């Protein structure tokens, strides 16, 4: 019996064979013929074979009647036969020792029960093989041209570039045809991921020296911890990950689920995961492509200080707006810079940022170069020029001299100062091929579309920060895998819940538990106002049941409240007899109330939720989410992101809350969740009363729900 570790290592080797094939076999009819033609046109120099029981050749490649007649165990196979036959073919290839295969056919997990049976059969048949799909378009290989792709595609000229992994075959086709000069290394249509998932591709691609960045077109992630492990490896290797996720709307989620049986939706958790792992999110296909281009051909900035050049006040105004929205700082030039630039401008020009170099200087390389160099020499982390190319007559492939001059101006300034530079056009379509290629040759990033351009530059700055954080703080943690629980649940009463959390460091009030007979003595032990609550694991929501009384003073008030409470609870839940009560001192003088909870997501594992507590929970729906395990710094940042954080930070002259104590309390809840992950179903601590600085916090209520391991 081969161990799972050995299978994983063998499959990893087979993924590498698939992505660098020396020999490819094609099986099927017309689609196989198209794939042969596409691979031949791309310039693949290895061996190609075909298998067909009746044909003598396909697109000039001689056929053998069966897989066992192949002269070698092929590194890669393109299989375009019906679903049930696909399973048989994969089994035969696995016995032969083939490396991997693209399974083009549909009819697997997207079809429900019958399809899932095929899905599992394919997984079993594959053994150690690397299987792409099924229900996918295949693999474009720009490195050694050993593509497994059933249609002609544009051939790149770059020596290295971004790899794309997408769950939509048609989108992968569209991405391959983009007119944005994005350099590619591989495009992988992952399909239903019966064998290989995103995590497997990432794990191998980050070790490929030809890969500059990895783009992920996601509908869902099948294994969060495994995915996180591969993303950590990408961080180690310095390979940025860029994501475009579909299914973010309710309707989109339904479409995505029906398309590949993937889990889509859960937007907040995906956002949390991407932030945790340093994955750069994008919202549109243009942003996705432009970001991959920028990260592949550009230099990372050292910060978010930006200077922009244009001859148009309108362009500069839009640039300032979009740059600000993307989180850039655009400080004015220093006094020295302003004086030097002003001396270079015509009398009516002014030195600012963005810099309007005026229409009179359009295309004047000898005038613009010293101006741009002065601006980019200090005080800025990135420089960009905004210029659009006019529409050319059919057949005219030239770039006019003015555009060449302006590109050269900022390129010289960038090289002289070491500050990264970009050339941006307002209209996405107004930068022709030859101009993009010239911009790249000058060491600049060509960016198409003014709004997207600053989002892209912002993502590049974000990744620079991510790299710095990894260097200083280490890699992000791998999210915990939740325990497998059955349907049964057990609710712990408040006293037990608080005691367990207190053992992990959560501050709780100094209360007393008493039955009816001891209630008077318990009440007499408190000097000030108290809170009294019924203690029962059958009352998870005590307020609705009338099982909470606030501000009670003296023994008589406590006894009267107990009698009334018993009557209300009896009406709320007939048959429940109260026999235990919790008395605690009232927490007075709090600055704010905060909710802290843990929910168990079947896909993402334990999720720590921090939000506005008390009556604001449902009113404001103000919450931050973290995946466990987490860190002190992440918890504090999550708290600071709350819309209600100003209440903790001295809003309108009020005292500040004890933020360090709140962070420590949240850590205590997270600690308990991590230590009890095998049986935990839910934690709800609401509210945590935050006192003024130096006075701590107190958890006024808590609830733990446990499950039984399945």
Can you characterise this structure?
- With 710 residues, this protein is an alpha/beta fold.
- The protein folds into five domains: 1-135, NAD(P)-binding Rossmann-like Domain (Rossmann fold); 156-296, Rossmann fold (3-Layer(aba) Sandwich), CATH 3.40.50; 298-473, 3-Layer(aba) Sandwich (Rossmann fold), CATH 3.40.50.261; 510-585, 2-Layer Sandwich (Dna Ligase, domain 1), CATH 3.30.1490.20; 592-709, ATP-grasp fold, B domain (D-amino Acid Aminotransferase, Chain A, domain 1).
- The chain contains 24 helices and 29 strands.
- The strands form five sheets. A seven-stranded mixed sheet has the order 3-4-2-1-5-6-7, sandwiched between helices.
- Helix 3 (83-96) links the parallel strand 5 (76-80) and strand 6.
- Residues 1-5 and 251-265 have low confidence and may be disordered.
List keywords for this structure.
710 residues, alpha/beta, Rossmann fold, seven-stranded mixed beta sheet, 24 helices, disordered N terminus
Mean pLDDT: 92
State the shape.
flat
Low-confidence stretches: 1-5, 251-265
Rg, nearest Å: 32 Å
CATH homologous superfamily identity of the largest domain: Succinyl-CoA synthetase domains
**Through-space gap between termini:** 27 Å
Number of domains: 5
Q: Kindly estimate the percentage of residues that lie in beta strands according to DSSP.
A: 15-25%
Main sheet, how many strands, which sense, barrel?
Answer: 7 strands, mixed
Quickly give the CATH architecture of the largest domain. Answer: 3-Layer(aba) Sandwich
Count the beta strands. 29
List the total number of helices: 24
CATH topology category name of the largest domain:
Rossmann fold
CATH class of the largest domain: Alpha Beta
